[in-house]
Amino acid sequence: MNTPTRCPCGSTQSYQHCCEPLHSGVHKAASPDVLMRSRYCAFVLGLGEYLFNTWHPAFVGTLTANELSKQETEWDHLDILGCGEHGDQGWVEFKAWYRDNNQLGCLHERSRFVRTDAGWQYTDGDILPPAPKSGRNTPCPCGSGKKFKKCCG
Fold first, then answer.
1. Which H helix or E strand runs over 93?
2. Which of 41, 46, 43 is nearest to 69 (CA)?
3. pTM score over 0.90
4. Per residue, what are the HEC states of 39-83?
5. How far apart are CA 75 and CA 54, in angstroms?
6. What are phi and psi of 20, to 5 degrees?
7. Residue 39 burial by CB count (10 A; 0-12/13-18/19+): exposed, middle or buried?
8. Residues 109, 126: contact at Cβ < 8 Å?
9. Maximum separation of any 2 CA atoms in the chain, in Å
10. Sheet order of strands, 119-127 included
């Protein structure tokens, strides 16, 4: 694995000081949004073991760590839209941007998390409706401020 300099989760920190301590087991995620960022980063880096271990066992289904490592998605960036927690329950709404055939796509989800003895764990989520398609002269949904046709179109 090539270790990135800047953390893929979208923070301004280096990977070494952001998600790597979570991925290596040195720290546990302190909140659902920290776990969400570290899981996104794990998808980017193909860290299936971490994804499997931070998924609540009652919800993981038939996926294996090896299957989770074999992501072929080209992840672009992550936007956290909101998050919260109440006791041992938490949620995060996010948009995970990816590229497919050089086109920008978006996974928009409201994820649920639960705090257990193992720390915060992902349980499941609701996929939210996709954003409307961007026209060539509309602002790019990636947030660059450029027109779609000059950016991701």
1. strand 89-100
2. 46
3. no
4. HHHHHHHCCHHHHHHCECCCCCCCCCHHHHHCCCCEEEEEEEEEE
5. 20
6. -60, -40
7. buried
8. yes
9. 50
10. 74-86, 89-100, 103-116, 119-127
pLDDT tens digits, 69-102: 887 889 999 999 999 999 999 999 999 999 988 8
Compute the C-alpha angle 106/107/109, nearest 5°: 140
Q: Would you state the structure tokens that stand for residue 7, as one six-digit string?
A: 């953390």
Q: Rounded to an integer, what distance in angstroms lies between the CA atom of residue 92 and that of residue 36?
A: 7
Give the tokens for residue 120: 């915060």
Q: Cβ contacts of residue 142 below 8 Å, gap of 6+?
A: 76, 77, 97, 104, 151, 152
